[in-house]
Write a structure and sequence with these properties.
Structural class: alpha+beta
Mean pLDDT: 96
CATH topology of the largest domain: Nucleotidyltransferase, domain 5
Number of strands: 22
CATH superfamily of the largest domain: ATPase, nucleotide binding domain
Strand content: 15-25%
Strand order of the largest sheet: 14-15-13-12-19-20-21
Distance between the termini: 52 Å
Largest sheet: 7 strands, mixed
Shape: globular
Radius of gyration: 23 Å
Low-confidence stretches: none
CATH class of the largest domain: Alpha Beta
Number of domains: 2
Number of helices: 18
């Protein structure tokens, strides 16, 4: 039996997951990490390369210890998107930041002031805005650390950084590299005109670009000593976490829709060609499949809000769950399930619908709750949080449907939110489409494993591999009887949110989050 190793540099942790060639997860290990602010530079979030490499190496060793004698045929990598690593002409690492780095606030503003049509032009070419792109960060370096900027001649993503540490050559792929905002949607590679108009040096254009599933090197003797992976194991180009996650849940064909319910909720819609969103609201990405793109929308913080609510308002349920060997969210859902659809009109204010060109969110709040303990209790508020995530997902999918001309007939629902019974049913009822829920718990890592298997010939292609490897837990059918209640809740939220956002824009309240330059 052949084995495949997937490595993931996530926002909050580094992870190693080992699969067999049948897609069965054999072992996993993770190490939590944080991204520290660089002294003197507010909003900065550096990526601690040496410390984090030790953590990933430890996770790999732990996984290999769980499966002695593992026959590793290939390794591939994935990571948070937008995080970049810069190298000098001798391939030495110079600088790296995580995806949440927001130090380039002034540079985003300066780019916008320099030409009020520049961001729209860049967005229509690249699918990305300035908010989390590489250009403002590079311009920040040019201004504040010019020596580092001048010495930098190659750029890669954090998934590629793992591969390079293992022994691969420096390169990137479209699905992750495209989030720099410096790739052309049509060519799936660097766009020289973007560099020119954004005021960036063109040295980085020499960094090779390969599609996901391409062999890019082999594990070096040094990396073998550090990790325990045998020297000579092929290293295969990976990709961005959401894009490989789509592969890992079987969303591999044009028109497939995947909804990932984690700390953030992502909606990924596969496209046979890139589409131009003149409104600038939707993110346009490269899929980790050659010749495919994805329209992406994001709901901010549903998982974080649920965790906050659990810890702040249900510590007793959390303790009960721990004593009973159950999940605290399961107990919260049991209470919330007794509340009727619409949660008595309680309307949470958290994430806005996707607005990529002007990414900001109102201050967190609950509005329209009755002063009645029979209705305004923690079960009702928790259900309202769950319904709110589904409502914004509906708003996002309608935005994408305005581009594609078609609302999805079904979707795949994965991630932590898909583990329960109530939340998937709420999503199905709000969207009024069936949801397929996969069994896989490590969708992104499975997607990376599939990429590795394609690279070394274990699988013929990613779509065929996903068809054979992804298995399904259940299908959740929508309840038409709940449609009217959720339409009312949706319309109420559409009226409430702009008013709350205006208060934040005026400084009366504080934005939950806003992008650099907003």
């Amino acid at each position: 039996m052949r084995h495949i190793l997937a490595l993931d540099a996530g926002t909050g942790s580094g992870r190693a997951v080992l699969f067999d060639e049948n897609g069965r997860q054999l072992a996993s290990a993770s190490r939590e990490w944080t991204h520290k602010e660089e002294p003197g530079f507010p909003g900065s979030m550096t990526f601690a390369r040496d410390e984090n490499w030790l953590m990933i190496s430890d996770a790999i060793k732990e996984v290999l210890a769980q499966v002695p004698g593992a026959n590793i045929s290939a390794v591939s990598t994935t990571s948070m998107r937008e995080g970049i690593v810069l190298y000098d002409e001798d391939d030495n690492e110079l600088w790296a930041c995580s995806n949440v780095d927001a130090r380039a606030f002034a540079e985003v503003s300066e780019l916008r002031r320099s030409d009020d049509s520049l961001e729209k032009w860049a967005y229509l070419r690249s699918g990305q805005t300035f908010a989390l792109g590489a250009a403002p960060r590079l311009l920040w370096l040019k201004k504040h650390q010019p020596d580092t900027y001048e010495r930098s001649v190659k750029m890669a993503m954090l998934s590629d950084w793992i591969a390079v540490r293992l022994g691969a050559s420096i390169a990137l792929d479209p699905s992750n590299g495209g989030t720099t905002g410096l790739f052309n949607l049509s060519t799936r590679s660097w766009d020289p005109e973007l560099f020119e108009r954004l005021g960036l040096k063109t040295d980085f254009l020499d960094t090779p670009v390969y599609e996901t599933g391409t062999v890019i090197g082999e594990v070096s003797a040094r990396a073998s000593a550090q990790t325990g992976i045998p020297a000579g194991v092929p290293i295969v180009m990976g990709g961005g976490d959401a894009q490989l996650g789509a592969v890992g849940v079987g969303a591999t064909r044009s028109g497939d829709v995947a909804i990932f319910g984690g700390s953030f909720w992502q909606q990924e819609v596969n496209l046979a060609k890139p589409l131009a969103d003149e409104s600038g609201r939707i993110r346009m990405n490269f899929a980790s499949l050659p010749g495919m793109w994805q329209a992406e929308a994001i709901v901010f913080f549903p998982g974080i809000a649920a965790r906050w609510f659990r810890d702040a308002f249900a510590p007793d349920l959390k303790a009960q769950a721990q004593d009973a060997g159950r999940d605290a969210y399961e107990l919260l859902e049991e209470v919330a399930a007794k509340v009727p659809p619409g949660s008595y009109g309680i309307t949470p204010v958290l994430s806005d619908a996707m607005n990529y060109m002007h990414w900001r969110h109102a201050a967190p709040s609950f509005v329209n709750f009755p002063l009645d303990p029979e209705k305004s209790h923690r079960g009702a508020f928790f259900r309202a949080l769950q319904e709110n995530a589904a409502i914004i997902t509906l708003a996002n999918l309608r935005l994408i449907a305005a581009l594609t001309g078609r609302f999805p007939e079904s979707a795949i629902f994965a991630g932590g939110a898909a583990k329960g019974r109530l939340w998937p049913q709420i999503v199905a009822d709000v969207l009024q489409i069936p949801l397929r829920i996969p069994l896989v718990k490590e969708a992104t890592s499975l997607g990376a494993a599939i990429a590795a298997g394609v690279g070394v010939g274990i699988y013929t292609d990613a779509a065929a591999a996903a068809d054979g490897l992804v298995s399904w837990d259940r299908t959740v059918e929508p309840n038409p009887a709940n449609f009217e209640a959720y339409q009312e809740a949706f319309q109420r939220w559409q009226e409430v949110y702009p008013a709350q956002l205006e208060l934040a824009d005026r400084g009366v309240t504080a934005h939950m989050w806003r992008a650099p330059g907003e």
